Amino acid sequence: MNRYLSSKSFSKRLIKKALILLCLVTTSNKMEAQVPIPTASQLAWQQAELGVVFHYDLHVFDNKKYNQAENRITPIADYNIFNPTHLNTDQWIQSAKAAGAKFAILTVTHETGFALYQSDVNPYSLKALKWKDGKGDILRDFCQASCDAVGMGTWASILLDVVTRQSSISAFFISLL
């Protein structure tokens, strides 16, 4: 008798194929086509189609080639190099809107940890500058410019610990709220 058709070998192959087929059938019955349904905020994000993110930091003014690795660990000694003479957040938002942006995000603390807002907690902030007599607040200006024009958001880097030497980044962020 042919080895292929021997009853023992044939039975094993038949059982193996039957089990595989059974697994496929039962699995495919349980696996109905499920399409993920986006949340309302995910739909809004998708429908916005275009947005802008503004990154603004002390390194804009240091006249050095940008080096992310060094910028993260080497704070700028003289904060007062930050001295924008023609800063106009209204113009930022108008340009973004003219380009078709539906939202704008401002990086309020970039990788150096320098805060673009007034802070009693973070000494590495606009409050420490001579610019606008230490009363400048780019976050406030940005919010006033963008709230009515486009959707608005902010981003804060988690690398504040490098500059502020806080024992806990979480505690620091909580204190900013």
Detailed description of the structure:
This protein has 177 residues and is of the alpha/beta class. It has helices at 7-30, 40-48, 68-73, 89-98, 138-146, 160-164, 169-176, and strands spanning 51-55, 103-109, 151-156. Strands 1-2-3 form a three-stranded parallel beta sheet. The longest helix has 24 residues, at 7-30. The chain is elongated and about 95 Å long.
Supply database-style keywords:
177 residues; alpha/beta; three-stranded parallel beta sheet; 7 helices; 3 strands; elongated
Distance, first to last CA: 84 Å
What does the average pLDDT come to? 75
Shape: elongated
Tell me the number of strands.
3
Topology:
Layout: H1 7-30, H2 40-48, E1 51-55, H3 68-73, H4 89-98, E2 103-109, H5 138-146, E3 151-156, H6 160-164, H7 169-176
Summary, kept brief:
The protein is of the alpha/beta class. 40% of the residues lie in helices and 10% in strands.
